[in-house]
Design a protein that fits this description.
Layout lengths: L10 H12 L6 E5 L6 H13 L13 H7 L6 E4 L17 H10 L5 H8 L11 H11 L8 E6 L6 H12 L5 E6 L8 H4 L3 E4 L5 H12 L6 H8 L3 H8 L3 H18 L3 H12 L3 H21 L11 H10 L8 H16 L4 H16 L2
Parallel strand pairs: 1-4, 1-5, 2-3, 3-4
Helix pairs in contact: 1-2, 6-7, 9-10, 10-11, 12-13, 12-14, 12-17, 13-17, 14-16, 16-17
C-alpha cells in the first residue's frame, strides 16, 4: 500500500514525480490539485514514500527496507500529517496527533476518500472540521527536531483550504524559509480557497480525471467487480474513484440524499407547505458538512436531469435508481427554471457555510422550488 503501483491510472503524473526524485529536483513545497477522486492523496503518499526509501527502484519504493516497513503501518518518524479535525474537549482531542489512530485506520482501509468519510471516521457529528491554529505550533516543533533516519522530513497537509487563518500565516513563514531537507505536500480539493500567499510559494501539480479504462480495471482487480458491470460504474463515476467506491458499497449517505431530493421535489410540486417544513427540519438535524454535501448532490441531480432531456445517455451520470426517477422528473427541469434552481442552491450553500439558521435556509429554499417547478 502507498506505492506508485497502488495509484489508479495517472501514469504521466507518476513518471514526472519519479523523475523529480531521480534527478534530485525535489521542490520544497508542492500543491496537488485536480478533480475530486482523481487520486491526489494516494499519489502524494506514494511520492512521499518514494522520497523516504533509500533503496528506491526506477519505478517505485523498494517495499522491503526499514523505511518501507514503517510506511506500511504509517509510522515513519520523519513523516508528519496535518488534516482538518473537530475538537473534542471530553476526549481531549485538540490536535491532529490526537486523531492519528483514526487517520491511519481510514488510510489503511483505502486512501481514496472524501471529507465526509473522514468526518464519519472521527465521529464528528455536527462539527465543522478545520486545521486549528495550535497545529502550526505542533508542526514547527516537529520540524525543529533532527531527522530520525537522516533523510527528508515530509509534511503532508490534507485540505489546506481548511487551515485556520492564524495557522495558515505561521505555515507561510515555514514555506518562505523551510528547514533543510524538508518537503511539504499540500493536497487540495479547492485550491482557490487556499491562502494565495501559500499557493504562490508552492509548485502546483495538477492531476486529470482517472480514465474509465483504468478505473474499470482497478474495480475488477481490487474489488471483484465483474467485467460486465465495471465499465458502467466507471462511466458513472466520471473519473472520480471515491464515487466509484461509493457506488459499489451502496453508500448510505447518497441513498439518504436521493430520498431527500425526491421528497423535496414531490412535496414542492404538490405544494405541501406543512410537509416541506418538516422536510427542512429533517435537514437541520444532519449537521453542517452533510447539509453542504446534500446541496452539492442537489446541484448534480438538477444538472443531470436537465441533460437527461437531451436523450444522450453518454452525457448522463446517474445511478439506476436516479435514472428511474429522471424518466418521470426530468421534464420539470428545463431551460425556463434550471438557472434559477442552480442559483438558489448556490445561495443556500453559501448561507449554510456562513452558519445561517439551517431550518430557515432549507424552508426558504423549498418554498422557492415550488415557484420554480411551475415555470
Amino acid at each position: 500500500m502507498f506505492s506508485f503501483k497502488d495509484v489508479i491510472g495517472q501514469t504521466e503524473a507518476k513518471e514526472r514525480l519519479i523523475q523529480e526524485v531521480q534527478e534530485r529536483r525535489i521542490p520544497h513545497a508542492q500543491l496537488f490539485c485536480g478533480p475530486a477522486g482523481a487520486g491526489k492523496l494516494p499519489l502524494a503518499l506514494a511520492y512521499a514514500r518514494y522520497i523516504s526509501c533509500p533503496h528506491r527502484t526506477e519505478t517505485d519504493a523498494c517495499g522491503s527496507c526499514p523505511s518501507c516497513a514503517k510506511w506500511e503501518k504509517l509510522v515513519h518518524p520523519d513523516v508528519h500529517f496535518m488534516f482538518p479535525i473537530v475538537k473534542n474537549a471530553k476526549k481531549k482531542k485538540e490536535v491532529c496527533d490526537d486523531y492519528l489512530n483514526e487517520w491511519r485506520h481510514l488510510l489503511l482501509t483505502t486512501p481514496y476518500f472524501g471529507l465526509n468519510h473522514w468526518l464519519d471516521e472521527m465521529d464528528a457529528e455536527n462539527g465543522q472540521a478545520i486545521i486549528y491554529a495550535k497545529e502550526s505550533d505542533e508542526i514547527l516543533r516537529k520540524l525543529s527536531l533532527k531527522s530520525s533516519e537522516g533523510g527528508y522530513k515530509i509534511t503532508l497537509i490534507w485540505l489546506p483550504e481548511k487551515l485556520h487563518e492564524a495557522c495558515a500565516n505561521k505555515l507561510l513563514k515555514l514555506l518562505e524559509e523551510p528547514p533543510e531537507k524538508t518537503v511539504f505536500l499540500l493536497i487540495s480539493e479547492a485550491p482557490d480557497m487556499v491562502l494565495p500567499t501559500i499557493v504562490s510559494r508552492t509548485q502546483r501539480f495538477i492531476l486529470p480525471k482517472i480514465p474509465d479504462a483504468d478505473m474499470a480495471a482497478a474495480l475488477e482487480q481490487k474489488y471483484g467487480v465483474t467485467p460486465a458491470d465495471s465499465p458502467a460504474i466507471a462511466h458513472l463515476a466520471n473519473g472520480n474513484f471515491v464515487k466509484a467506491l461509493e457506488t459499489i458499497h451502496l453508500n448510505e449517505e447518497n441513498e439518504q440524499f436521493f430520498q431527500l431530493f425526491v421528497s423535496l421535489m414531490r412535496l414542492a410540486y404538490q405544494r405541501k407547505i406543512r410537509e416541506l417544513k418538516q422536510w427542512s427540519e429533517e435537514l437541520t438535524a444532519i449537521g453542517r458538512e452533510k447539509q453542504k454535501n446534500f446541496l452539492s448532490y442537489c446541484q448534480r441531480m438538477t444538472r443531470e436531469n436537465f441533460i437527461y432531456n437531451l436523450h444522450c445517455p453518454q452525457m448522463n451520470y446517474l445511478t439506476r435508481e436516479e435514472q428511474n426517477f429522471a424518466t418521470r422528473f426530468a421534464p420539470f427541469i428545463n431551460e425556463r427554471n434550471v438557472t434559477g434552481i442552480m442559483n438558489e442552491l448556490s445561495e443556500a450553500q453559501m448561507h449554510i457555510e456562513q452558519n445561517v439558521n439551517a431550518r430557515m435556509v432549507f424552508f426558504d429554499f423549498a418554498l422557492k422550488i415550488i415557484v420554480l417547478l411551475k415555470q
